[in-house]
Amino acid sequence: MKHSLWTKNLLYLACLLLLVFSASSVMKDLEDIWERSWEISTYTIFAAKCIPFFLAGLLLGIDSLLKEWKSPGRWKVDWKKLVLLCVPTLYLGLSSFVYFSSFLCNFPVLQYPAGVLLKGEAGFLGIFQMAFGYFILT
Fold it and tell me: What does the alpha-carbon distance between residue 33 and residue 55 come to, in Å, rounded to a whole number?
């Protein structure tokens, strides 16, 4: 049992490291192209920054999904958790899209939290994106 736990955790670590290094390489390439030619849209760069954090959250929550998959009976959806945790973390994780969205210019109440997050350290966005990926699967 302990041997399989070590193997599983090493596999998770390897997947996370692969995700981090590949995302870093893709971001470097995208930023190089953007600096040279400005042919990449801002939304593409935002998406490239969001997807690895979301995937890391999914990877962290995959264990509970596998346990649920193996359990007999019907799956249960925790709607309270979905509404109270997933929706806010999705909104805050995508705040860079929200802030620059022309549709939401008419709703400054929705843009304000995104603007506050973008003025501060951008590391918080990744935390919200990772939390969203984790909460979706757990």
Answer: 24
